[in-house]
Amino acid sequence: MHSKKRGPKAAAGKWQTPHPGPKSSAIAGKPGENHPPQRKAGQQVRQPEPAESPEAPTGPAAEDRAARAIQGAFRQLRARRELARRREERREYLEQMEKLQREAYLALVRREQEAARRRREQEEAAQRERREELQRRRRLLDAAFDGDLSEIRAVLKEVEQLLTREGVGHDEAGNARRLQRRVALVECQDSNGNTPLSEAAAGGQPLAIQLLAELGASPNSKGAFGRTPLYRAAFGGHLEAVEVLLKLGADPRVYAEDGSTPEQVASLDAVVSVLHSWDLSLTEAMLQNMEAEQQHRAQEAQRHKEAEAECMTLKVQQLAREQQQCHKELQQAYCELSRRISEHDQCEWRRMDKTELTLQAIKDAEDQVDRLQQEARKAEEALALARLALREQTQDGEEEAQGLKCQVTELHDVLMKDVGNRIQADGRPGGYLPALPGHQLRGHSEPRAPEAGEDATGSSGGSAVREAAGV
């Protein structure tokens, strides 16, 4: 009875911890539900182990610290080696630059020495030629006075051989040049203005007079004190020489500076008689023939000069075309070099394994540019010298004026470059024109390389050369 009374009271109280043992059917749940198997009495319920909570980091382990220290030391070692390598490359680069500068300076000195040697050799050759020409003239004058015909012919033969060595042919132009040189030789003068024919007349050498006249010497040339060959022959009393001169066209009416004629100064009566009885109509006819011959020679010389000027003009035009072609190729080479530099920059930016190939391509392009620069410089020098030769050839025979005569398109060659050293030879310093803005003549500017940071199209790409050079 007592236990029955306590049952509801216990149920109305606090929740009691179930006693281990079999559960009542009320707690078993609904039929059909799956429940874990019931444990036997006396077995303890195994509580689930709580999950392990992550421990707070307490710092790297000793192995990690050692690995990090090794990595840091290795990186420092690699950095020191890389720094040493770069310093060594920098040192080698500086040594190479110093070596190249020294070689360039020595090459410049050698080039200047070679140019000075060539100028000295040219001056010595010119002086030697002048001495030889003076010696030939003295020989010719002495031989004419002495009547030595073999010596006269020997001197003329030397001149012919000299012209042959100079490349003068035997065609029409060559024969005209030979005739001009031969006439200039037989018309040479001594310090007193006397010609070889005048010396032969003074020496009384009729055969020499005849030979020199056949070679183109004038029988009416005036020498010292305005005396003609006929005057000197009459004064010396050389009758045969007077007769030969009269037959060759010597004019007995020509006065000397003192107003005397050959007849008045003749030292022999036979000479006076010959001069007095000479038919002047014959002299007039021979003078007309000589004047016509001189005009013919002048026309031939002018025609020859015009032919040479035309040939020189064609040569200048050909050299101008070659120079333009060289400048065009040089500009294309500059553009190609700029493209190669851009390709190298792109390869470095994309980290491609083709930098060696691009650097080699840049080197090849630079070599091409250097070669074309030398060719363009040579073509420009050849063109400037040809223009100088043409200018001097066209100015021959014109009235000389003070200064140098040239065209506007040739001012750069004359003033800035002094081609042929004409200004320096005239006693004026060459290249004195100030570098005013726009002094460069249009149409004569040299091709330039693209500016740093631009190529043929204006795009950037100029760091490859500096990086390849190590600067």
Structural commentary:
The chain is mainly α. Among the domains are: 119-278, Serine Threonine Protein Phosphatase 5, Tetratricopeptide repeat; 324-395 and 406-434 and 445-469, no CATH class. It is 65% helix and 0% strand. It has 15 helices and no strands. Helix 4 (172-186) crosses helix 11 (280-350). The radius of gyration is 55 Å and the shape is rod-shaped. Mean pLDDT is 77; it is low at 1-36, 39-45, 429-447 and 452-471. InterPro entries: Ankyrin_rpt, Ankyrin_rpt-contain_sf. Residues 1-73, 425-471 are annotated as: Disordered.
Summarize the structure.
Helix content is 65%, strand content 0%. The chain contains 15 helices and no strands.
Mean pLDDT: 77
Low-confidence stretches: 1-36, 39-45, 429-447, 452-471
Radius of gyration over alpha carbons?
Answer: 55 Å
> What is the CATH class designation of the domain at 119-278?
Mainly Alpha
Strand residues, percent:
under 5%
Give me the CATH superfamily of the domain at 119-278. Answer: Ankyrin repeat-containing domain
How would you describe the shape?
A: rod-shaped
Q: So how many helices?
A: 15
Helix content: 55-70%
Question: What is the CATH T-level topology of the domain at 119-278?
Answer: Serine Threonine Protein Phosphatase 5, Tetratricopeptide repeat
SSE ordering: HHHHHHHHHHHHHHH
Distance from first to last alpha carbon: 114 Å
What about the largest sheet? Answer: none
Corresponding CATH architecture of the domain at 119-278: Alpha Horseshoe
Q: Class by helix and strand content?
A: mainly alpha
Count of DSSP strands: 0
